[in-house]
Structures are given as C-alpha cells and as structure tokens.
Design goal:
Blueprint lengths: L6 H6 L3 H5 L34 H6 L2 H15 L3 H10 L1 H7 L5 H13 L2 H5 L2 H15 L3 E2 L12 E2 L3 H22 L12 H15 L12 H10 L20 H11 L6 H13 L1 H5 L4 H6 L4 H21 L2 H38 L1
Antiparallel strand pairs: 1-2
Helix pairs in contact: 4-7, 4-10, 4-18, 5-6, 7-18, 10-11
C-alpha cells in the first residue's frame, strides 16, 4: 500500500471511505436523541420541534426531500443576497480557495453537511436541536461584513446572526422544501401537486418553531400572507444582480474562483465525487429549479426562456424522480447525504409519523 506523505496531496485524494464519511462529519455535541426518546421537564414526551403527524414531517421526511433537499436549499437560500454574500466571503470553501487547497471534495462535503446537520434540529428531541442551533450561532458570529453587493453599496452589510438574516436563512430553507415537495413528490397515489392554502399556512406556522431556535431572529411569519408581506418588504435583497458574485477584496467572480481551484487541485480519484455531484446538481438541478415560483426564477436571474426550460425539465424528470424515490435507491442517497446519525433519525421519525397518521385515519373513519 502506498503511503502519501504530502499533506496537500492527501487532501486531493478521494477514497470511497472519505466520500461517505463517518458520523463525525455531521455530528456536533454528541449523539442526537431521536424525537420521542426523551421527556420534557413537565414529563411530556419530547418530540422535538415538529413531531409525528405534523405537516413539517410530511414534507421533510418525504423521499424526494431527503434526496434533493440540499440542491433545493442551495438554490433558494442564495437568492437572498446576504446569505449569498456570506458564502462568497466567509465560507470555509472560500478560505481554502484563498490558500489554493480547495477541491471538488470540499464542495461535496459542504453539501453533505448541509443536509445532515439539519437532521438533529428537525428530527431529534429539543435539547439535540438546541445544541446544533448553538453551534451554528457560534460559527455564524464571524459571518459579518459591511458590503453585500459591490455593485449596490446602498444595500449595506450583512450579519448572519442578525435578526433579519437569521430569519431569512431559516425561511428560505422552509420555502425550498415546500416547493420541492409540491413539484416532485409523488404521494397519496397521485403525481406531485400543490398543497392547499390551509396546509401551506399550517406548515409555515409549524416551521416558526425552527426559526425561534435562533433567538436573535425576527418574529417569524405564521401564514402565507405574512410571509408574502416579508418578501415585499425585503424585495431589494432578493433582486438579481450581475455583480453579486464579485469578491470584495479581489474583484474576481466567485464562481470562476471556485472553478480555478477545482481544476488546479484535481485528482483522478475525485471522479468518485463527480458522479453524485453530477446526479444531484446536474441531472436533477434544473428539474429542482422548475419547482420554484416565478419570483424565485427572477431572483436567480433566469430569462423567461430559461424559466420555461426549467419547468419542462421538472416534468421530464418525473419518471426518473419516481424511481429515485423507491427504497432501493433512497437508501444510498440518504446515507451519502445525511450521514449515519441522520439515517437513524429519519428512520425513527418515519415510524412515529406513519403511526400517527394511521391513528388519525382510524379516528376519522
């Protein structure tokens, strides 16, 4: 067996073990406790933020969300300029890029942790959720700048832990999963379809518990009308800008900066990464975009022609999405993107959720 002595060379090599990673890639503050496996101070069972029978769990636990959540979230969250600016300026990928050590594996690792680190907040008990939120608050404390967009200095700056930006970071996660669910989730024996207005309001109200995990966040909306009003209030921060990806210090385009590093540090073993990246962000990326409403497409800078192409891609992808929602395919992607702890939390929550829905159906009969 060849032993690689050079540290930088070791970083570019991707083994199967490194691709999948151990629980330590996702785990923070110990093993999370599954929802329903602990009790609150008053003796009640602690089901976490949402719990069995909730619309939030309907959406989060659906196979299509587990499969494509990180793709949808990445697209929607970065339409909010302060989040996009924080990634551009302060993300670990940026730091590694400035040191010329960034690889495509780092980008994939970022996508993996984006899914799995949410699992304890959405599917574990309340203390587990609070520990992860505390961790995110700590690391986001340094994500601060006086400049969001060099082309629009009047927008001012951003602070990831500020009331406005902390709130929108959570709300864009919520919206991305709902739109993904409506656009690609086969359920109830039917093709993907929109939820009712009442269900939409209920989902937004349930998700307020997640926003409140971050105590500095503004009071979250609890209905679609309140969320619409917030979108109108902060419309300038969702408007597409050609200069948004211009790096403040160097003036280089951020996407070009990333690609330059990926090419410079490429190693043939990284083909292992290109396959899942190609499936998630290439094969299904445009189909996911096609799930979003027009105002999101405008924030992404899509032309009407590109928007129509994304909607066609969503429809054309439906047969393949149906296959990827089957259990044999889902197991692979769940483990790859959510990690060992996330898999256990998902499986446990699904049992609780299915039992709650069966009990509700029996009561209604």
């Amino acid at each position: 067996m060849t032993v690689i002595q050079d540290t930088k060379a070791a970083d570019v090599v991707v083994t199967k073990e490194r691709l999948f990673g151990s629980e330590q890639r996702w785990r923070r503050f110990g093993v999370p406790t599954p929802a329903g496996e602990s009790r609150r101070a008053d003796g009640a069972v602690d089901y976490g933020l949402f719990g069995p029978g909730s619309l939030a769990w309907d959406i989060i636990l659906h196979p299509v969300t587990i499969f494509l959540e990180t793709v949808a979230q990445g697209q929607v969250q970065t339409t909010y300029k302060p989040v996009d600016a924080g990634v551009r300026d302060k993300d670990p990928m940026t730091r590694k890029g400035l040191q010329d050590t960034l690889t495509i594996m780092d980008a994939f690792d970022r996508a993996q942790r984006n899914s799995g680190i949410h699992a304890p907040m959405w599917l574990a008990d309340t203390p587990s959720a609070e520990r992860i939120a505390k961790h995110l608050i700590a690391i986001h404390g340094k994500v601060v700048s006086d400049i969001i967009d060099v082309g629009e200095p009047e927008l001012g700056g951003y602070a990831a832990n500020g009331p406005r930006d902390a709130m929108w970071a959570a709300l864009t996660e919520m919206e991305s999963m709902l739109w993904l669910y409506e656009g690609l989730a086969f359920r109830d024996g039917k093709r993907p379809h929109a939820v009712s207005p009442a269900q939409r309001d209920a989902y937004i109200a349930e998700f307020a518990a997640y926003v409140r995990l971050f105590p500095h966040a503004d009071e979250p909306p609890t209905s679609q009308s309140q969320l619409d009003a917030l979108h109108e209030k902060y419309a300038d921060l969702f408007r597409h800008s050609a200069t948004m990806h211009t790096m403040v210090e160097s003036g280089e385009d951020y996407q070009a900066f990333l690609m330059r590093n990926f090419k410079k540090n490429f190693h043939r073993s990284q083909v292992r990464v290109l396959m899942p990246m190609g499936v998630l962000f290439g094969l299904f990326g445009k189909a996911v975009t096609g799930c979003f409403p027009d105002h999101v497409h405008q924030s992404m800078g899509l032309t009407p022609k590109q928007s129509r192409a994304a909607r066609r891609a969503r429809k054309m992808a439906l047969p393949l999405v149906w296959i990827f929602q089957r259990s044999f395919a889902q197991r692979y992607w769940m483990r790859l993107m959510w990690g060992p702890d996330g898999v256990k939390l998902i499986q446990h929550a699904r049992k609780l959720h299915d039992a709650a829905k069966r009990e509700r159906a029996a009561s209604a009969a």
